UniProtKB/TrEMBL annotation:
Keywords: ATP-binding, Cell membrane, Membrane, Metal-binding, Nucleotide-binding, Translocase, Transmembrane, Transmembrane helix
Keyword field contains ATP-binding: yes
Domain Cation-transporting P-type ATPase N-terminal span(s) in chain numbering: 10-82
Membrane topology according to the record: Multi-pass membrane protein
Organism domain of life: Archaea
GO cellular component assignments: plasma membrane
Signal peptide: none
InterPro entries according to UniProt: ATPase_P-typ_cation-transptr_C, ATPase_P-typ_cation-transptr_N, ATPase_P-typ_cyto_dom_N, ATPase_P-typ_P_site, ATPase_P-typ_TM_dom_sf, ATPase_P-typ_transduc_dom_A_sf, ATPase_P-type_domA, Cation_transp_ATPase_P-type
TM segment ranges: 62-80, 86-105, 251-269, 275-303, 767-786, 856-878
Localization of this protein: Cell membrane
Gene Ontology terms describing biological process: intracellular potassium ion homeostasis; intracellular sodium ion homeostasis; potassium ion import across plasma membrane; proton transmembrane transport; sodium ion export across plasma membrane
Record-level Gene Ontology MF annotations: ATP binding; ATP hydrolysis activity; metal ion binding; P-type sodium:potassium-exchanging transporter activity
Name under which the protein is recorded: Cation transport ATPase
Length: 889
């Protein structure tokens, strides 16, 4: 199979036939066996996303300025002859590095795993049959189908192009879409951007359809060659991480200031050597900064992302987790998101009477029953044939189940209706009678879809679409007696019928046809109107409850649909949205409004009907202008701008195009509105839980600083060794901090309004309170220290050290909720083991040979009990009182 020629041939300079021959393929594609063989030979069609090497992530942990200061401190200790100290500080630095590494590495892995869940697929022809396969299984020689919204899954030499336009900006940087043409044969030196007969991996189809033979896969593709383009965009720090880093810096500065004072007093008042004073001050500064916070935040966001994925909400960027928590309006599609999308034509109206269909969903079992006396079977037959002609060439009765998720449900419903009328046995016959010539896919601007067929020696188009639009384009109407010119009375009758069906929540579709005079004749104008189809698409289970739940959380739900106003209103009512005439806005009304006028009414509107994707963008902008945090759903290529503009763009995992998924922050694996609400809940929970470790860690840092500073002020000996501080910050405090991040949701979390835009995790008031807690801890530490001085300095330091370490029990309890009494909170199963672990760590330091390293001495059981109990009890008591008198946000 000439492997070398496969890799080097200038494919764009060969004709389609030459390419197919060279690749040993045909327009019917490869056989499954051959494809399997080639897969073995060429390997999977994937580009290994360039990962950051673990060693690199590890090394990065040590670039932190604070850590460098710590290393410097260790070096100074060494010079002072305090070799033990120097080694201990270095060991702690190492532990810190490992912890930061573990968190970051796990977060990175988690995101990668999540991305895999949404592994791309490709439509391929093998052995003459169209199939959907994982894109990774494509091989050279495969014939691939692409259409609007698809990501091109490998390098293709096009063999067919139908209005095909491709966005190649990912390769060339050129943002205007490129028109493709399979018929061209180009000179070998044609530049990349001009290779009109090729489509390259990683580019996206923005219009039309095409077919191509795979000429290169995986690393041999153009994209594979340009490694730079393959690197996953570096994950930007989330706003939250930025805030935390900023906070760390600020706290760091304050502590540096305090350290300066301590340094000066140590040097001047106590007359110690310059280096000793320096060492003490630097170690204090570094030890008192909450180094662990950013790592804990990243870790919690990653855990959150994984939990969301379990609920079918796939987060594409960590930042989305926190953004979700602040969303207060969801703009959702109707069809398939709020509704099941398993459409069935329930009623058919023609001038020859009305029919009702039996059956369920996309199942073809069922039949048409006349429900009006004048019902005439001749028109029914005609509609059945047209419906099949219009849809059957891509749909197969046998494969209906698997198609249900890939094909337009509207088209499937039309197909199924056709089968019910004509009978499953005659589908092939109808297809023969109406040979397909071309297809104009549905789009939301025309709101129509048409197919052109060879029929009885002439050309005929069949059109379905939004009923008013088709009606407007109709010149004639089909009656049992034959075609006639359409009259104003007909128009009125049909319009009434449309309103009647729509107001009951049916999705209404018109069907019409036209005998074309020739190739150039407009297939969508001058139509003969045939009938109306009323399609049921019931709301999904659980959506009503989810809307209700969102409302309790202070999150508005707004429905944005291309469908008829009355249909939209009826469905909106079914899911519990309040709608009256003044909460509904139609596309044409939007067109007449300025952006300012729109912004003035967005507060009230809960249903937008007959809108186009451009309107969606305007709606997002207007809502944002009014201070809303917007989640907006979408699936098509045209939705991309609105998805990008929204605070959280939400793409449909099943129905959505690759383009929509790529620009979104959240992908719904089940396309379900209720999943958005779940994700918002999760986002809130995670954000709220980040506050708990912060409160816990900061109050400890402030306790340490107050102790050292207070002891200095009181003229006491130096109260804590640097290693003591580092030990607490990095080891004993870590487990409870993580456990606090996993607290179950507090009462009321899902019934109060979302946090306002720009809300911060740490406010001045909170900092004040954490300081108060710190001062309480310091009071105990200093008091107990002073009292035990008579038993020796080492003993007294052990007491102070242990007091601060064991205050974690009280700090943890007080940090579990900002507003609710400890006794109202649900059980957190992570907390007891975490507290026990850190107690254990402290006991190891006190009662094993390690004690000599830390220069501590064993404490008696009574003293230990007092130290463990008193400070914590005081902290909890004070906090319970605080919650009664001072609830801050
Ligand atoms: P929705 O918000 O419900 O997804 P769409 O923009 O998809 O609305 O559809 C708007 C209208 O266009 C529908 O009410 C229907 O009449 C018509 N329509 C939708 N999809 C198709 C299709 N595939 N073929 C023909 N007509 C369609
Ligand atoms: Mg739709």
């Amino acid at each position: 199979m000439g492997q070398t020629s496969v890799e080097t041939a200038p494919w764009h300079s060969l004709s389609v036939d030459e390419v197919l021959e060279k690749l040993g393929s045909s327009l019917r594609g490869l056989s499954e066996e051959e494809a399997e063989r080639r897969l073995q030979a060429y390997g999977p069609n994937i580009l290994e996303a360039k990962r950051r090497h673990p060693a690199l992530i590890f090394a990065r942990q040590f670039t932190n300025a604070l850590i460098l200061i710590l290393v410097a401190a260790s070096v100074i200790s060494g010079f002072l002859g305090e070799l033990l100290d120097a080694a201990l500080i270095l060991a702690v630095v190492f532990v810190m590095g490992v912890m930061g590494f573990v968190q970051e590495y796990r977060a990175e892995r988690a995101l990668q795993e999540l991305r895999k869940l949404a592994s791309p697929t490709a439509k391929v022809i093998r052995g003459g049959v169209t199939k959907v396969v994982e894109a990774s299984r494509l091989v050279p020689g495969d014939i691939v189908l692409v259409e609007e919204g698809d990501r091109v899954p490998a390098d293709l030499r096009l063999v067919l192009s139908d209005n095909l336009e491709v966005d190649e900006s990912s390769l060339t940087g050129e943002s205007a879409p490129v028109q493709k043409d399979h018929e061209q044969v180009l000179p070998p030196e044609t530049p990349l951007g001009d290779r009109a007969n090729m489509a390259f991996m990683g580019t996206t189809v923005v219009r039309g359809r095409g077919r191509g033979v795979v000429v290169a896969t995986g690393p041999r593709t153009l994209l594979g060659g340009i490694t730079r383009a393959v690197e996953e965009a570096e994950e930007q720090p989330t706003p939250l991480e930025v805030e935390l880093e900023d906070l760390g810096r600020k706290v760091g500065f304050v502590i540096l200031g305090i350290s300066g004072v301590v340094f000066a007093t140590t040097l001047l008042v106590e007359k110690t050597s310059l280096l000793t004073a320096l060492l003490v001050a630097i170690a204090l500064a570094v030890a008192a900064v909450p180094e662990g916070l950013p790592a804990i935040a990243t870790g919690l966001l990653a855990i959150g992302a994984r939990k969301m994925a379990e609920k079918k909400a796939l987060v594409r960027r960590l930042a989305a987790v926190e953004a979700l928590g602040s969303v207060n309006v969801i703009c959702t599609d109707k069809t398939g998101t709020v509704t099941r999308g398993e459409m069935m034509v329930k009623y058919l109206w023609t001038t020859g009477g009305e029919f009702e269909f039996t059956g369920e969903g996309f199942r073809v079992e069922g039949e048409a029953r006349p429900i009006t006396r004048d019902a005439d079977d001749r028109l029914l037959e005609k509609v059945g044939e047209l419906a099949l002609a219009h849809t059957a060439y891509t749909i197969d009765v046998a494969g209906l189940e698997s198609l249900a998720t890939r094909k337009s449900p509207t088209e499937l419903a039309v197909f199924v209706m056709g089968v019910k009328v004509v009978g499953p046995g005659r589908v092939g016959e109808v297809k023969e009678k109406y040979r397909l010539v071309s297809e104009n896919p549905f789009d939301r601007f025309r709101k129509m879809r048409s197919t052109v067929h060879e029929h009885n020696g002439g050309l005929v188009s069949v059109v379905t679409g939004a009923p008013e639009v088709v009606l407007k384009n109709s010149a004639g109407i089909l009656r049992p007696s034959g075609e006639e010119a359409i009259t104003p009375l007909d128009v009125e009758t049909v319009m009434k019928r449309i309103e009647y069906y729509s107001s009951q929540g049916f999705r209404v579709l018109s069907i019409a046809y036209k005998r074309l005079s020739g190739e150039g004749d407009d297939p969508e104008n001058g139509l003969v109107f045939v009938g109306l189809m009323a399609i049921i698409d019931p709301p999904r289970e659980g959506v009503r409850e989810a809307v209700e739940e969102a409302k309790r959380m202070g999150v508005r739900t707004v429905m944005v649909t291309g469908d008829h106003k009355l249909t939209a209103m009826a469905v909106a009512r079914m899911i519990g949205l309040e709608v009256g005439e003044d909460n509904v806005l139609e596309g044409w009304q939007l067109d007449r409004m300025s952006d300012e006028e729109l912004a003035r009414v967005v507060d009230k509107v809960s249903v937008y009907a007959r809108v186009t994707p451009e309107h969606k963008l305007r709606i997002v902008r207007a809502l944002k202008k009014r201070g809303y945090r917007v989640a907006m759903t979408g699936d098509g290529v045209n939705d991309a701008p609105a998805l990008k503009e929204a605070d959280v763009g939400v793409a449909m995992g099943v129905r959505g195009t690759d383009v929509a998924k790529e620009v979104s922050q959240l992908v719904l694996l089940d396309d379900n509105y209720a999943t958005i609400v779940e994700a918002i809940k999760m986002g809130r929970w995670i954000y709220e839980n980040l506050k708990k470790p912060i409160s816990y860690l900061l109050s400890c840092n402030l306790g340490e600083v107050s102790s050292v500073f207070g002891a200095e002020l009181l003229g006491l000996p130096y109260i804590l060794e640097p290693v003591h501080l580092l030990w607490i910050n990095v080891t004993t405090d870590a487990f409870p901090a993580l456990a606090l991040g996993l607290e179950p949701p507090e009462p009321g979390l899902y019934t109060r309004p979302p946090r306002p835009r720009g809300a911060r995790l740490v406010t001045g008031k909170k900092l004040l309170y954490y300081t108060l807690t710190g001062v309480v801890i310091a009071a105990f530490a200093i008091g107990l220290f002073a009292q035990s001085l008579s038993k020796g300095l080492e003993y007294a330091r052990t007491v102070a050290f242990t007091t601060i370490a064991l205050s974690e029990f009280g700090r943890a309890m007080a940090s579990r909720s900002e507003r609710h009494s400890l006794f109202r909170l649900a059980w957190n199963k992570w907390l007891p083991p975490a507290l026990l672990a850190s107690l254990g760590l402290q006991l190891i330091v006190l009662y094993t040979p390690l004690s000599s390293l830390f220069r501590v001495v064993p404490l008696g059981p009574v003293e230990l009990a007092v130290i463990a109990f008193l400070p914590s009890a005081a902290i909890i008591l004070i906090d319970e009182v605080r919650k009664k008198v001072w609830v801050y946000d």
